[in-house]
Amino acid sequence: MRRLPSLGALRAFEAAARHGSFKRAAAELGVTPTAISHQVRQLEDDLRVALFDRQVRKVVLTADGDALYPALQRAFDTMAESVAAVRQRPLRRVATLSATVAFTAKLLVPHVGAFRTLHEGWDLRLHASDDPVDLHAGEADAAIRYGSGRYPGLTAVPITTDCFLPVCSPRLGLRQAGDLAGTTLLHFEWRASGVHAVHPTWRTWVRQAGVQGFDPAAGITFSDESSAIQAAVAGQGVALLSSAPWRTNSLPAPWSSRSVRHSPGRATTWSFPATPGYDRPSPCCETG
Fold this sequence. Notes:
35% of the residues lie in helices and 21% in strands. By secondary structure, the protein is an alpha/beta fold. The strands form three sheets. The chain has a five-stranded mixed β-sheet with strand order 4-3-5-12-6, with helices on one face. A five-stranded mixed β-sheet has the order 9-8-10-7-11, with helices on both faces. Strands 1-2 form a two-stranded antiparallel ribbon. The protein is rod-shaped and about 110 Å long. The protein starts with 6 loop residues before the first helix and ends in a 15-residue tail after the last strand.
């Protein structure tokens, strides 16, 4: 444990010794000469020695003061240099981007290294979640979600407008729509996104694509899209997914001609607060 006198008193002494004047030391430190005199006297009482010979219009170091001053001058010079070095370092800022679990894993993670190159001085925090986030409350700086894009107080920039089609592993050997009969359908639960939201489910695909002969409600349901994608890759069934390459590049689509566009006006968007001065970096990725 260091047993040191008051830092303020040491600082007052060093400035007075350097200037040879309580008045000039006071001007440098933004206090009164009386305050400097008081702090120096406090230091002398603590050390039980006289540090200055007080003369008219100036002060002169005593032998004890002359022994103390060089070490204090070096110490304060070192502190000043360290503080200046820290102040000169570029300020690093952190941007939090929230995206769905599948979007984060399939698109953001493989390209995340480009962010530091494109946005020097920024660090990136990825928040992977399929749940809504409150950007106004500061849960994230921006979010990538699929929906209408009509989010109060937010600016939504479309990234993709999606078509949805059945995809599966080539190991299943499916070639035509009739092959879906007797095949396990893979579903996942969409998060609520509005009273009138119509999600791309097997039931809507059957209706729009005009395919019959199987029960669109049967199969296996997952709580998240990522699990449904992995199940399709593993050959566990057929999933209804977006045609965006980041979702389907590892899954053939035997029925590409049967793709259907989802509800008009719905898309994957990059959303951020619609406030003046918003200067967060934009996504460093492309979706197709």
